[in-house]
Write a structure and sequence with these properties.
Kinase-like_dom_sf, 4 helices, two-stranded antiparallel sheet, alpha+beta, Aminoglycoside_PTrfase, globular, Aminoglycoside 3'-phosphotransferase, Chain: A, domain 2
Length: 127
């Protein structure tokens, strides 16, 4: 089960560091030659698990470039365990609907509660 997996993982025992905490392609500024010129939106930054900034870069979605890009970035860092970063991303992806519901409750945003509920239902009843 998810809770057993969460209790068994060691990815949350790693070092903590200053992270952007919402580091995704939407926050990268590129010039006309696709060279990185800046990073924006540091509103969620804080001291957190070292793998946190790689969650979205390892995500394979329409918003992001794909997992290969994220793995290439991790290799450039050189001192990050890629497999643990991928496990971290996978666990965070699993509990994201719960986090979405929590955000909706805290901020009184019914659409977030409903979106999280729908995602849990979809994942539970795939048929």
């Amino acid at each position: 089960s998810f809770m057993e997996r969460l209790n068994a993982t060691t990815v949350f025992e790693g070092k903590k560091c200053l992270c952007h905490n919402d580091f995704s392609c939407n926050h990268l500024l590129l010039d006309g030659n696709n060279r990185l010129t800046g990073i924006i939106d540091f509103g969620d930054s804080g001291i957190i698990d070292e793998y946190c900034d790689f969650i979205y870069l390892l995500e394979d979605s329409e918003e992001e470039i794909g997992t290969n890009f994220g793995e290439d970035i991790l290799r450039m860092y050189g001192n990050i365990d890629i497999e643990k970063a991928k496990e971290y991303q996978d666990i965070v992806e699993e509990y994201y609907p719960i986090e979405t519901i929590g955000y909706g409750i805290k901020n009184i945003k019914q659409e977030f509660i409903e979106n999280g509920r729908k995602e849990i239902y979809k994942r539970t009843y795939k048929d």
